[in-house]
């Protein structure tokens, strides 16, 4: 058996319209999975769907706002329609408002914590029963360097990503006995919409690259191997873990 073959599996990817989510879609379909692309921008989802289908992949799209918890049941129902199952959940949607601590409001705090921490749990909770019926499932959360250390203008974001570490452990404790493992990736600096303000500053971008052990910032393709691994049978005995994929940033 090829431990990394995802043929016959279906993955739901939130935040799939760009960045890490879009790259996860490319990696998982290349390994044989079918994907449901969930995001807010239909045009971006359509572009990615066409790219994937041109490579022979099976992909459907759903434009929806995960920030509205009242719509979550409907969103889950619509995501289940194409294949009547979700085997792999990539909780990738997120927001980073980059506010100084003095500027954070209750509204911006809730916006950040809801999308980055609340939705990953409640979305998983709604998908667990049908995974449990088959005795197998994979949940991949997205943590951050800020799960472990503080960055400027990141207090709410850092709180949400620190929470993801413990959420991942707690989800693993709750559901791994049903055959559903839950792990998180913690990316370093990759070129995405969330990090665009960083990469727009050449000096800062180079400074961050110099802080890695490898000597460069990440390329989105660097995420592929870990994504497929955590989504596949190859990681069946790994759960509750957060794996840093940061070029050694946290090692120095």
TrEMBL record:
A family per Pfam: adh_short_C2
Keyword terms, alphabetized: Oxidoreductase
Q: What is its EC number?
A: 1.1.1.69
Species of provenance: Neptunomonas japonica JAMM 1380
Family as reported in the entry's similarity comment: Belongs to the short-chain dehydrogenases/reductases (SDR) family.
Q: Which gene encodes it?
A: idnO
Entry protein name: Gluconate 5-dehydrogenase
For this protein, the record's SUPFAM superfamilies field holds: NAD(P)-binding Rossmann-fold domains (SSF51735)
Q: Which GO terms describe its molecular function?
A: gluconate 5-dehydrogenase activity
- Residue intervals of the Ketoreductase domain: 9-146
Task: Give yes or no: UniProt keyword Nucleotide-binding.
Answer: no
């Amino acid at each position: 058996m090829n431990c990394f073959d995802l043929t016959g599996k279906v993955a739901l990817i939130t935040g799939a319209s760009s960045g890490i989510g879009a790259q996860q879609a490319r990696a998982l379909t290349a390994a044989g999975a079918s994907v449901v692309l969930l995001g807010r921008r239909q045009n971006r989802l359509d572009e990615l769907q066409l790219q994937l289908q041109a490579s022979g992949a099976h992909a459907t799209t759903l434009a929806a706002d995960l920030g509205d918890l009242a719509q979550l049941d409907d969103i889950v129902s619509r995501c289940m329609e194409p294949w009547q199952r979700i085997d792999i959940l990539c909780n990738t949607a997120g927001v980073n408002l980059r506010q100084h601590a003095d500027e954070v409001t209750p509204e911006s705090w809730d916006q950040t914590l809801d999308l980055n921490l609340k939705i990953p749990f409640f979305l998983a909770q709604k998908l667990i029963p049908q995974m449990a019926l088959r005795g197998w499932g994979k949940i991949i959360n997205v943590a951050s360097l800020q799960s472990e250390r503080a960055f400027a203008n990141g207090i709410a974001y850092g709180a949400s990503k620190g929470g993801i570490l413990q959420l991942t452990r707690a989800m693993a404790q709750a559901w791994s006995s049903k055959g559903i493992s839950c792990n998180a990736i913690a990316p370093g600096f990759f070129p995405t919409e969330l990090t665009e303000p960083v990469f727009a500053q050449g000096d800062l971008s180079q400074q961050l690259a110099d802080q890695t052990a490898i000597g460069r910032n990440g390329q989105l393709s660097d995420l592929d191997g870990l994504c497929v691994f955590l989504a596949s049978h190859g990681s069946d005995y790994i759960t509750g873990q957060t794996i840093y994929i940061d070029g050694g940033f946290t090692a120095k």
